[in-house]
């Protein structure tokens, strides 16, 4: 390819990013964020590292609005049969691996909001990682969180800010 043409394409992409922000390859833009959903089922640690390799983190949730945004996005990407199935939910960045019952987000943001399913977290058999329970009669119940064994394999959501 002609190098001037290549440079022009690069500049055009850069200008588009400057005007409205953009997402790297394999991410989709939703609001002010870039999301990457991977339907491959992996344990929580592998999900965390996969996000980090993409310059992102497992998604963190700081409001009901955040939660709805992520759950609606997930529903649009996952097979309809995946809703209301605990083992077909997705990993988020919350964990209490460092100190039992002291939950923190893997992206380092503060825990300023929580959306636990009734009776959770219960640390049943030493559960230290968190996912939406994906269980209940409607979306507002299903998006609530439960602690779950980190070794379970689930799809996952990565998030990063737009490139500006
Ligand atoms: Ca725990
Ligand atoms: Ca639990």
Automatic annotation (TrEMBL):
Keywords: Lectin, Signal
Listed SMART domains: CLECT
Name of this chain's protein: Mannan-binding lectin isoform 1
Cross-referenced InterPro entries: C-type_lectin-like, C-type_lectin-like/link_sf, C-type_lectin/snaclec_domain, CTDL_fold
Keyword Transcription: no
Signal sequence residues: 1-21
Domain C-type lectin: 30-159
Gene Ontology MF term list: carbohydrate binding
Coiled-coil residue spans: none
Gene3D superfamilies from the UniProt entry: Mannose-Binding Protein A, subunit A
PANTHER family given in the database record: MANNOSE, PHOSPHOLIPASE, LECTIN RECEPTOR RELATED
Database matches in Pfam families: Lectin_C
């Amino acid at each position: 390819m002609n190098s001037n043409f290549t440079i022009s394409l690069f500049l055009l992409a850069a200008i588009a990013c400057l005007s409205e922000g953009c997402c790297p390859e394999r991410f989709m833009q939703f609001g002010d964020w870039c999301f990457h959903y991977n339907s491959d089922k992996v344990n929580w640690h592998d999900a965390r590292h996969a996000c980090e390799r993409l310059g992102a983190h497992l998604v963190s949730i700081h409001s009901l609005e955040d939660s709805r945004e992520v759950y609606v996005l997930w529903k649009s990407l996952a097979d309809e049969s995946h809703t209301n199935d605990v083992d077909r939910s997705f990993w988020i960045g919350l964990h209490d691996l460092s100190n039992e019952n002291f939950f923190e987000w893997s992206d380092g943001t503060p825990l300023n909001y929580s959306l636990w399913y009734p009776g959770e977290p219960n640390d049943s058999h030493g559960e230290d990682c968190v996912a939406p329970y994906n269980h209940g009669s409607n979306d507002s119940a299903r998006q609530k969180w439960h602690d779950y064994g980190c070794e379970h394999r689930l799809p996952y959501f990565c998030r990063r800010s737009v490139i500006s």
